[in-house]
Amino acid sequence: MLKIKLRPNGKIHQRSFRIVVAEQHSKMNGKFTADLGFYTPQSKTLEINKEEMQKWVKNGAQVTLGVDKLLNPTKYPNKKKAVKTKAE
Asked: Fewer CB atoms < 10 Å away: N or C end of the chain?
């Protein structure tokens, strides 16, 4: 099964990600079928070829949770952390 997923590249603390179409069980830096775009978390830059992505989705590729969160941020609201108060 093909998935549209994030492929990390760059240094450890300076990660950037390629958005690729790859086999579901392929390695993180393994072979991929198509390169659709990139995401850079430091500058919040997201560039993706929407037409190419729609073509792959139409042909049966599934979008992973990480890519879906980037494309639809309103679908996944941020959870607020519980604040612990000190008992006196």
From this structure: C
In this structure, is the dihedral angle defined by the CA atoms of residues 46, 3, 79 and 12, taken in order, positive or negative?
negative
- 58-80 pLDDT tens trace: 999 999 999 999 999 888 888 78
* Position 58 in a domain: yes
Q: Pseudo-torsion of CA 46, 80, 82, 40, nearest 10°?
A: 10
Q: What is the pTM of this model?
A: 0.80
Question: Is residue 47, in this structure, part of any structural domain at all?
Answer: yes
The CATH number of residue 35's host domain is: 3.30.1320.10
- Residue 38 near residue 16, CB atoms below 8 Å: yes
